[in-house]
Amino acid sequence: MLARLFRIQNRTAIYDRAHKITASFLIGLTGVAFLAVCHQLYKAKTEYLPEIRRRGKERLEKTLAIRQTEAEIAEQEQNKNTKQHEDVEENGPSASNEDVEFDYPDVKYEYLDNTADIQIHAWGDSLEESFEQAVMGMFAYMTDIDRIENRDMKQIDIRAEGDLQNLLYKFLSEWLEVYGTEDYFVARKVEINLFDRKELRIIARGYGETFDLSRHAQGTEVKAITYSNMQIHEEAPTHDVYVIVDI
């Protein structure tokens, strides 16, 4: 009986000791893990966090620099547009044409005899093109426009009253006035940017240069545009226009 009791007590002591060893091991393991976590936190604070902050600062600086550059470009573009608008308001709708590239249009006009004056017959795939060709036909009668180079650009904005004939009359008259007041500017190409039938308004650009007698052949000067026998035929495909000019 005593031997059995001794064995039970001995077994209990072994279990208690095993529990204590296990508990000590777990406590030690937890402590090691805690120290490892503390070490990683310290390392993150001393090494990783400054690096993260540095990279974040660099990204922020790059973003701010890009935004500043975009703002400067937008401001420069706005200033450029404002200056161009002021130049147009002050000096009229003319500008340099150094960067404009295009093919010169086909000739779609001819001259018909009409007593002492000359009649220009122009045609095109649209009425706008016929108007453009009529202006180029007028300039071609005054000089050989094949020798005119693309050195300058003039822009006009005209409005008419009544009908398309008045619009054609004012369109040609305005270009003739540009020739007389803008150092004898001759357009080799005319391009209509706005053709408003309802408002009877045209905005157009002419590409060419100043007439120079040393380089350009002198033809017959057109003095004025007339309404005499003016005709506009909108039937496709030619959209013919006829206008008599005073020479």
Automatic annotation (TrEMBL):
Biased composition (Basic and acidic residues): 77-86
GO BP annotation list: tRNA splicing, via endonucleolytic cleavage and ligation
InterPro entries found in the cross-reference section: Archease, Archease_dom, Archease_dom_sf
Keywords, alphabetical: Calcium, Membrane, Metal-binding, Transmembrane, Transmembrane helix, tRNA processing
Coiled coil start-end: none
Keyword Transmembrane assigned: yes
Any one GO CC term of the record: tRNA-splicing ligase complex
Positions of region (Disordered): 71-99
Limits of the Archease domain: 109-247
Record flagged with keyword DNA repair: no
GO-annotated molecular function: metal ion binding
Transmembrane parts of this sequence: 21-42
A Pfam cross-reference name: Archease
Similarity comment: Belongs to the archease family.
Protein name (database record): Archease domain-containing protein
